[in-house]
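Record type: monomer structure entry
Structure origin: computed from sequence
Chain ID: A
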Amino acid sequence: MPTSLRPQKTAVLVAQRIVADIQRRGNKAGDRLPPERVMLEEYNIGRGTLRESLRFLELQGIIVLKPGPGGGPVVQQPDGSGLATALTLLLQFENAPFRTVTEARTALEPMMAQLAATRMDDNQLAELKYSVDHMLDKVGDESVFLEMNKRFHDIIARNSGNALFGHLIETLLGMLDGTAIGVDYPEHRRLAVHKAHAAIYEALAARDPAAAASTMHEHILEYANYVERKFPDVLNAPISWTL
């Protein structure tokens, strides 16, 4: 017999209604939600349940609870931090190694580049070109290299026309921050990455989906092979949630 689904807590159901009402009203980041007394009456719940609902939404990055007189719940734009934490914890309890992330990127990022080739506009391409040029201009500065590397992949993912890809790449890049897990990027390696980024940019600027996908696949595979050769222990290390 199929197992019965566990009923959701009242606080979570109320949180879903609050989010639906935020969208229905067209609330934007910075807008205040109705005062507590209004929400208690509107949702026909107790103060404890409402506060649990609001705390849940705060943890998801939907609102921020401002203290003091004139405070209360304020809408904010959620980011990928909640997804990153949840996915990291899921993988940690699966004892998944960091290799999992590189394999996922090898599969996903060529598709993102393929889509972006026909969906990026000129302004987005210009932003991508800046990241490529600035990486080379500051090739001796590893912190700039890492920033431009993340920016390059983030721009492509977010402008692939698929919102899910943007959040996934932000999460995966955060989990596989090379310097944080022991991967070193000497200058010759940074130059190799820049060369790959330049080739991917040229394919995207030419609006060539096949070339964009293939050059991205080569780039991610080259990165995976580099880490495999130089830092095999890193790829085999289990993913863990760190602050």
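Annotation 1: The chain is about 70% helix and 5% strand.
Annotation 2: The chain has a mean pLDDT of 90.
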